[in-house]
Amino acid sequence: MSRATNSDTGAPHAADSHDLIRVHGARENNLKDVSIEIPKRRLTVFTGVSGSGKSSLVFNTIAAESQRMINETYSTFVQGFMPTLARPEVDVLEGLTTAIIVDQQRMGADPRSTVGTATDANAMLRILFSRLGRPHIGSAQAFSFNVASISGAGAVSFERGGKTVKERRSFNITGGMCPRCEGTGSVTDFDLTALYDDGLSLNEGALTIPGYSMDGWYGRIYRGCGLFDPDKPIRKFTDDELHDLLYKEPTKIKVEGINLTYEGLIPKIQKSFLSKDRAAMQPHIRAFVDRAVTFTTCPDCGGTRLSEAARSSKIDGISIADACAMQISDLAEWVRGLDEPSVAPLLATLRHTLDSFTEIGLGYLSLDRPSGTLSGGEAQRTKMIRHLGSSLTDVTYVFDEPTIGLHPHDIQRMNNLLLQLRDKGNTVLVVEHKPEAIAIADHVVDLGPRAGTAGGEVVFEGTVEGLRSSGTLTGQHLDDRAALKPSVREPSGKLEVRGADTHNLRDVDVDIPLGVLVVVTGVAGSGKSSLIHGSVSGRDGVVAVDQTPIRGSRRSNPATYTGLLDPIRKAFAKANGVKPALFSANSEGACPVCKGAGVIYTDLAMMAGVATACEECEGRRFQAAVLEHRLGGRDISEVLAMPVTEAEEFFGAGEARIPAAHKILRRMADVGLGYLTLGQPLTTLSGGERQRLKLATHMGDKGGVYVLDEPTTGLHLADVEQLLGLLDRLVDSGKSVIVIEHHQAVMAHADWIIDLGPGAGHDGGRIVFQGTPAQLTADRSTLTGEHLASYIGA
Question: Are 389 and 417 spatial neighbours (Cβ–Cβ below 8 Å)?
């Protein structure tokens, strides 16, 4: 390609010299003064073990600074409405272009958010039906399940010509929301025995709802409302008293001299608990909701969320509810059959959007699928759709493991999409672990050598071939191929699944062997999660570790999340004769100046806030008096600064021996988190680290069957080996392990494989193979079999 030249001198144009993104002195999180040069308009892959600093460099430094500088081009008024971004810890960043981030963050799991509303597909369908639907029922909002039908009338006053004029006005809004379920598609029913013990009175603690103890604020309201006798057992309440306790509408009351609003238990729970995404709830709240509330399909709308009027308007016999329930690949065919010149531009855009779903491998979804049920990989690919047909060039696209949740068969398609974006003249930065995705890189940056404080350095920069011979951890493992086990374990029993028909499953009957390592495989959308989470996860004795991300504030850390801090606090309290609450930075022991945060945050309105270390506690988070109390010669702040491996040794023997703490620490070390410090904020952990922390926590749950959903997510090739060792230890200890997985090394290590397919959506939902990995590779009768055979070199 010839470069444009300066017309006067014939010399290269100065603008063409900016072909690199230069990063000098990056120190974000664990980065150690990293300096690199990344070629523009090329595909650069960032590799390294989980926690080595890949995300810190790509997302928290390059992409964050690009976004911050774009935000600064807006007026301060507009910036006041935008999230404030601090400047990353870096000396020089040159050659940045506009960054578009496509990450793995789950899509907003609002109960009313679907695949259609999260993309533009639903909006376009609503306009289409408002123009072509018969009978005509109104504008596009008449087909929206998020808009309620309302009408009203009354007098309005306004100034005209210096006089106050009153006029009667009326308004009418036709929405598409089902009035019974309010657009959620399901109605709730409460198990009253989970809300209270009817043999007790309120004063005796009848309420069993989390946070509703009689000593708390809610308890005082219900005791002091005067609507019923707090000393009378609930089973002796009259019908009116029971109605007031459970269903009474908001009413002004006075309790202990304070004006308050009283509301029945059920509307209170609906507002405080059920309005939240289930995944965002604290574990004890989630357990209560699962126990007390049953969700059933709304009988009025049949789960479509739409009013009868919205469902009555049709195009060629298809209503908008029917269109949204179709598999997207089928919907694209239906839209292609519509030929109406009056809406031609709308149809062309809608066709392109729906075809993009199919092109990216999500044609098996339907537009009415709740967005909160998408896996991390599906959510990321859904976000990619809006960028596929974009005319933008010279943009930096940043991807976080785009091959997550993809069968080896689908990875080639994803690779082609990344190369298409690059070939349009864009810079593509990809954080990735899969060898198939690393192979297409023009440039590779390998971080390491290890994770956490032992990482944060660039250990290799160059081509894929150079990486292979570099001797780094990634280079050594790039061509690793797991071999089939010489012999497989014999099952000790079976778990029967009969007539499974969740989502696309077709009346599946299968016997899952127990006492062995079972791997469930199949292309994305074939029905793996529907089978296991729909028919196995809810059973007694089954511990399910799904893909929902850990949520935590900067006050949360591995010690608080795993429950490790509780036995440690009690041991400190016992050794020093004081209360356990003193050893919590979120309770009585907190430094009074920074309130246990360790830093002081200064809000600077539309500019990025400033965090400075607290001068009183020097960032240790505790009062000076608390740090005088010791256990085994260490104070609580020194314990929180320990890495897991050191803490495991410290609490395993001697004066500081705490068996309960040692057990949790051993599980954390087992999943490869030995380098994490106990007090490191959860907000600084990478996706892979959070996934493994969650796995370590669930390993302590009581249960004989473990279900793991893609545990290799975010794991480096070297860490997969350690994970396989952990799975073996679980099985050898008498547990049954069922893994939903795409990674061929895990498939090769299995004792038994259940393969679903043959395709995705309505082309899947059947068992296409069950047997040992050796039988699968010998058969080569399925896509999984073909790819596994070529992986092991059979």
Answer: no
Give the residue among 335, 355, 373, 362 at the shortest CA–CA distance from 503.
373
The CA radius of gyration of the chain, in Å to the nearest whole number, is 29
3-class DSSP state for residue 313?
coil
Task: Please give the C-alpha separations between residue 352 and each of 386, 387, 459, in angstroms, as whole numbers.
Answer: 10, 12, 43
Low-confidence ranges of the chain (pLDDT < 50): 1-3
Query: Is pTM beyond 0.85 here?
Result: no
pLDDT number for residue 302:
93
The pLDDT assigned to 514 comes to 96
Residues 6+ apart with CB under 8 A from 86: 68, 608, 609
Q: CA 706 to CA 344: how far, in whole Å?
A: 52
The predicted structure's pLDDT at residue 548? 72
Please report, as a single letter, which amino acid is at residue 51: G
pLDDT at 2: 45
- Torsion angle of alpha carbons 237, 243, 246, 252, nearest 10°? -110
Nearest to 371 by CA among 697, 42, 113: 113
Check the CA dihedral 646-574-626-568 and report its sign: positive
The pLDDT value given to residue 1: 42
* Beta strand pairing call for 99-102 and 457-462: unpaired
pLDDT at 279: 58
Decide if 552 contacts 683 (C-beta within 8 A): yes
CB contact at 8 A, 450 and 675: yes
Q: Which amino acid is at 680?
A: Q
